[in-house]
Amino acid sequence: MAKYRVEFKPSVWKDFDEVPRADRRRILKRIERLAGDPRPTGCKKLSGSEQYRIRQGVYRILYSIEDESVIVIIVKVGHRREVYKR
């Protein structure tokens, strides 16, 4: 299996401003692991869109996968009660 390239939408870096530093490190480690396996155990496909989510404590990482280009795009990172709001 090819290793995926991980890219971030520019707005994700603003999302990290709301996350405490210790949690931020754990989230970034979890994102790094997506490069090797973009559909790990525990990931869920979101209904109504071509996005997936994984959990890291009380935070959620929303991302999309482009298998043809071998890219994982991180769309949003946030607390579980706020991340799904538009």
List the helices and strands and how they pair.
Layout: E1 5-8, H1 10-15, H2 21-34, E2 44-45, E3 51-56, E4 59-66, E5 71-79
Parallel strand pairs: 1-5
Antiparallel strand pairs: 2-3, 3-4, 4-5
Can you walk through the features of this model?
The structure is a single chain. The protein is an alpha+beta fold. It has a single domain (5-79), classed as RelE-like (YaeB-like fold, 2-Layer Sandwich). Helices cover 23% and strands 34% of the residues. It has helices at residues 10-15, 21-34, and strands at 5-8, 44-45, 51-56, 59-66, 71-79. Strands 1-5-4-3-2 form a five-stranded mixed β-sheet. It starts with a strand and ends in a 7-residue tail after the last strand. The model has no long low-confidence stretch (mean pLDDT 93).
Quick rundown:
The chain has helices at 10-15, 21-34; strands at 5-8, 44-45, 51-56, 59-66, 71-79.
